[in-house]
Design goal:
mainly beta; Immunoglobulin-like; Jelly Rolls; five-stranded antiparallel sheet; binds calcium ion
């Protein structure tokens, strides 16, 4: 029996276009309660009045010395601090400190960046009045860097008749926007490798790209670019990029994700796209 002639055009080309709706995410406002304790000067006891009592949503519903709020150890005579972390890094523009005892005691606020450096965003007189829980709201110009935590400075001499206590802390800001708009992202078998090509329609504040590869779409991705692929586009002009991955085997399937990075170090992933390498002929 005669075998049919082997087809020469056996190259499987997989184009997976990922559309703008997925790739274009704008910055969103985020208001979030503190989720972890980074540090504190003192705490009155544990777990009652501990630093953890300032995490999560408010749960101290009345004014007074109540164990569901953080209290520093000394009632008076010290300068104290409480440093809290938040789930989502944001370009921060404010904080709300819920004071539930000795109100009016905050004298300084710092925010913490990705490198763990502290930036003072406010100093002054806290106008919160005693007698009822008070939300001390502080606003500042949005930080250019992402904020991971807040340090609150407390003067225990503010009310000589009681402790100064914090029930909850909410950070306000916007999350990192996707500043790169993609037109296409493809992976195509080419020679002995895979050619990954992408095109942008605009790039704002983009430093460049890295490529990540996996053998499965939901698998573990490894970075395959040893150096960042430098950005070439701008806010008004996109650019075209190509990268050849030669470290692939015949007959196998590969998945790729594209990562863009902005000047603050924030990254966004695009894809995945996949390519199947033809069997050797
Ligand atoms: Ca006091
Ligand atoms: Ca609390």
């Amino acid at each position: 029996m005669k075998k049919p002639a082997k087809k020469l055009c056996a190259v499987t080309v997989t184009f997976l276009f990922v559309f703008g709706t997925i790739l274009t995410a704008r910055a969103a406002d985020v208001d979030q309660w503190a989720s972890n304790v980074i540090g504190f000067s003192t705490e009155w006891s544990r777990p009652a009045w501990s630093a953890e009592q300032a995490l999560g949503e408010p749960n101290t519903l009345h004014y007074g010395d109540i164990s569901t709020a953080w209290a520093p150890s000394p009632q008076n005579g010290s300068l104290e601090y409480l440093t809290l972390g938040f789930p989502v890094p944001v370009h921060a523009d404010g904080v709300t400190i819920r004071e539930t005892c000795g109100n009016g005691f905050v004298y300084r606020i710092d925010v913490i960046d990705a490198d763990g450096a502290y930036h003072t965003v406010w100093t002054g007189a806290d106008p919160s009045l005693p007698g009822a829980p008070a939300d001390f709201e502080v606003a500042w110009t949005e930080t250019s860097f992402l904020v991971y935590g807040v340090k609150i400075y407390v003067d225990t001499n503010h009310d000589m008749g009681t402790w100064e206590e914090i029930d909850a802390v909410q950070l306000h800001g916007s999350d990192s926007p996707t500043l790169v708009e993609m037109a296409s992202l493809t992976a195509t078998p080419s020679g002995n490798g895979v050619l990954i090509e992408w095109q942008t329609t605009s790039e704002i504040d983009n430093v460049g790209f890295h490529l990540w590869r996996s053998r499965a779409g939901n698998g573990k991705y490894k970075r395959i670019t040893s150096q960042i692929v430098p950005a070439q586009g701008s806010a008004v002009m996109g650019s075209f990029y190509a990268f050849e991955d030669e470290n692939v085997l015949p007959g196998k399937r590969y998945f790729y994700k594209l990562e863009d990075m902005d000047s603050s170090g924030a990254t966004t992933l695009h894809g995945p796209v996949k390519a199947r390498i033809p069997n050797e002929r």
